[in-house]
UniProtKB/TrEMBL annotation:
Database matches in Pfam families: ECH_1
Keywords: Fatty acid metabolism, Isomerase, Lipid metabolism, Lyase
Gene3D superfamilies linked to this entry: 2-enoyl-CoA Hydratase, Chain A, domain 1, Lyase 2-enoyl-coa Hydratase, Chain A, domain 2
Any GO molecular function: isomerase activity
Matches recorded under PROSITE patterns: ENOYL_COA_HYDRATASE
GO biological process: fatty acid beta-oxidation
Domain of life: Bacteria
Keyword field contains Protein biosynthesis: no
Organism phylogeny: Bacteria, Pseudomonadati, Pseudomonadota, Alphaproteobacteria, Rhodobacterales
Enzyme class, UniProt record, top EC level: lyase
UniProt-recorded name of the protein: Putative enoyl-CoA hydratase echA8
CDD domains the record matches: crotonase-like (cd06558)
Pathway in which the depicted protein is active: Lipid metabolism; fatty acid beta-oxidation
Amino acid sequence: MSDTVRVTRDGPIAEVILNRPDKHNAVDLSVFEGLAQAGEDLKRADGLRAVVLRGEGPNFCSGIDTSLFSANPDPKALIGKILEVPEGETANMFQKPCTVWQELEVPVIAALTGVTYGAGFQIALGADIRLAAPDIRMSVMEITWGLIPDMGITTTLPRLMRADQAKELIFTGRVVEAAEAAALGLVTRVCEDPLTEARALAQAIAGKNPDTIRRDKRLVNDSWLMDRAAALRLEAELQAEVIGQPNQLEAVFARIQKRAPNFK
């Protein structure tokens, strides 16, 4: 596993850490791979009762590392990765870092601080519980790059908020601060020290009947909304129709060049 994602273990509790603080924990390919691998490894971990998901440094995650756009100049190659789902999986390689946390039987608690944008927003939504600092700033940022959110959001956001509210955030990329994020259901609650609270909550959960906790998570998850495989396939297909097209590239160049986009 790459050192951009670290996993530590303290008895029955694991911590998964986005470890690119100098880049505000922006997500590059190593983070995609590292988070997916961490989740898969924790599925097989003996004695695990709870997981804390956090970012190193003041920010949880600023979103996609913009180097990914220049590192993948061939849109057709990237579209192939988006539409490719490994055998036995329902999620592609970009969705897996967000969806794997709901594949774990144990509760996953995200400790959110600073910016939680785009990919970071969707990773956070994959957790069962989100504890946020008062300085939290959240955004479905993909529209600023001319893209749709396609990292499992179809399996998470509909469980949390109304469709019209979700559409406003997705259409605009508007930044939401702590109080509004809690009111919208994007975070479970706001607290002064989310990491300390997350660790305490994980300890409390670890002290409960693990057979019951696992079934509690399954009870809630299995009783909600759209078929998982269909939802993940839908977002992948829609992204493949957008990525690499002229207007999407114009969104990238305009943002990098700090100018207004000129869409056709």
